Amino acid sequence: MVGKIYPTSKETTVAMTVLEACPNCGSTRYKKNGHTRHCKQNHFCKTCERQFSAGANPHLISHERRTLVANLLRERISLRGICRAVGVSFGWLLHFMVECFAACPNHLHVKVPSDPSNVLIHKLEAEADEMWSFVEKKENKQWIWIAMDAKTRQIIAFHVGDRSRASAKALWANLPEVYQQHATFHTDQYEVYNGVIPAERHKAITKQARQTNHIERFNNTLRQRLSRLVRATLSFSKKVENHIGAIKFFICHYNLEKAAALPL
User: How many structural domains is the chain composed of?
Assistant: First the structure.
């Protein structure tokens, strides 16, 4: 006959551990909420709505690792690859990614001329172009419309949509007011720009004129740095919101680097 096996003193200590507070907010207002996949008692905090299990140690991601993950989100590496390299869960990475995208300002950190005399003395010139991409499947085309300051190389506006005149108007609406009123725009000969950009400040040129080479080079930079923009990739965007957020996240950091190199 097999005797009953009693737990050791260490096991008894673990079993007798009484939960006192939520490890996230310290509140004592919690209740039982089923069991985890490891058959541990799960709890739900009524204050911060955090779920936790008894005896669980809080797994905090340090500031250094968060900074590293933010930098990797701007490189050509998949989300699963970031999880493997940094050692974070896929669920945490998705939440952190959305937080990074939401924190990006709409002005894209563009350093616009503040003195009207500088606008008149130093003629503002910009380049505009569109780049093909897709979300979820290649049939769902999402064109990236971009406008760049020809001198500072900063991205002054962008829009994600179809390749119609409505998207060209949306790009124009996103431009800072000083560029709408004073800048001369160089574009390719795509006809949708006609009527959107004022005719006296619109120059539709060919590639041989080399007036849009800077923005075309930036399009290549986007494809090289963001894995979701590669034409043949498994890291494509599944949601339009994340597609736009990833592009905006990269552009904001790109503009900060360009602004730091500009003379004061």
Answer: 3
120 with 94, same domain: the answer is: no
* Location of structure tokens 């431009």: 175
Tell me the pLDDT tens digit for each residue of 19-63: 678 888 888 899 988 988 778 888 999 999 988 887 655 567 899
* Contact between 106 and 252 (Cβ < 8 Å): no
Shared domain check, 228 and 163: yes
In a domain, 1, yes or no: no
pLDDT at 14 over 80: no
Residue 111, in any domain of the structure: no
DSSP state of 227: G
CA–CA separation, 116 and 182 (whole Å): 10
Residue 261 pLDDT > 70: yes
> Considering the domain boundaries, does residue 193 fall inside one?
yes
CA 143 to chain centre: 17
| Cβ(180)–Cβ(153) below 8 Å | no
Q: What is the pLDDT of residues 122-161, one digit of tens each?
A: 689 999 999 999 999 999 999 999 999 999 999 999 999 9
The rounded Cα 22 to chain-centroid distance in angstroms is 32
Encoded tokens for 216: 């075309």
Q: Which two tokens stand for residue 41?
A: 């008692």
CA distance 30 to 260: 48
Neighbours of 254 (CB within 10 A): 20
Same domain, 225 and 139: yes
Q: Is 26 left (phi over 0), alpha (psi -120 to 50) or beta?
A: left
Residue 107: inside a domain = no
CB 227 within 8 A of CB 250: no
Residue type, 98: V
